[in-house]
Recover the amino acids of this structure.
């Protein structure tokens, strides 16, 4: 595989499909699955177990630890889950936006420089084994053939993630049935369903690195 990956996720989100052979019943099970089946050694760098409380984040030790984990990776995977956003809390007071923000920054240390990470959104199935809370499809006719378009429900995630989707500076678009449809690599943070991702992890990671290599083609929002 050749890439170090940082995983950002809502540890306590129990609104996901239960994974057999894993007993937490939360998004953390999916991280464990990746560690057990798709990555080796320290190639997978996990976010902190409990992202519910940011009260200690002002402590330089905690902040430095987070930066170090992201610095040591080249790709950030964000696990999209049904309850990842706590609507009762300010987004500044939740872990995932900070992790994505750091992932998108260019950082410097003594005699070294870290480019922004590639970022990939992997959508987890909900308790009913459905992805409809984040990805839906609709059909249209084109030259007598039925085609389908994905709708990404960006309103169901954090603003910093949504703003880095469909953010290509010169996107290829087409108006279809009154909707603006994007083609090609239109999002810096691309979206993939969990089942598709685990069937071909390497290809999705390679594609995310390709977008990172062309980051100047995108309007990147770094601040929360």
């Amino acid at each position: 595989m050749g890439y170090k990956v940082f995983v950002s996720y809502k540890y306590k989100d129990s609104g996901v499909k239960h994974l057999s052979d894993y007993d937490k019943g939360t998004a953390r099970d999916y991280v464990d699955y990746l560690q057990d089946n798709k990555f080796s050694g320290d190639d997978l760098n996990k976010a902190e177990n409990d992202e519910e409380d940011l009260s200690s984040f002002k402590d330089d030790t905690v902040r430095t630890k987070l930066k170090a984990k992201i610095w040591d990776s080249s790709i950030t995977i964000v696990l999209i889950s049904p309850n990842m956003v706590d609507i009762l809390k300010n987004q500044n007071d939740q872990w995932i936006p900070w992790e994505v923000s750091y992932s998108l920054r260019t950082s410097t240390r003594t005699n070294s420089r870290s480019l922004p990470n590639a970022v990939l959104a992997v959508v987890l199935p909900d308790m009913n084994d459905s992805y409809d809370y984040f990805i839906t499809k609709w059909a249209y006719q084109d030259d007598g053939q039925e085609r389908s378009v994905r709708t990404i429900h960006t309103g169901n995630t954090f603003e910093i993630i949504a703003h880095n989707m469909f953010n290509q500076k010169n996107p290829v678009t087409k108006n279809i049935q009154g909707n603006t449809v994007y083609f090609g690599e239109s999002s810096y943070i691309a979206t993939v369903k969990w089942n598709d991702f685990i069937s071909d992890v390497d290809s999705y990671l390679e594609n995310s690195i390709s977008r990172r290599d062309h980051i100047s083609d995108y309007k990147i929002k770094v601040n929360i």
Q: What stands out?
A: The chain has six helices and eleven strands.
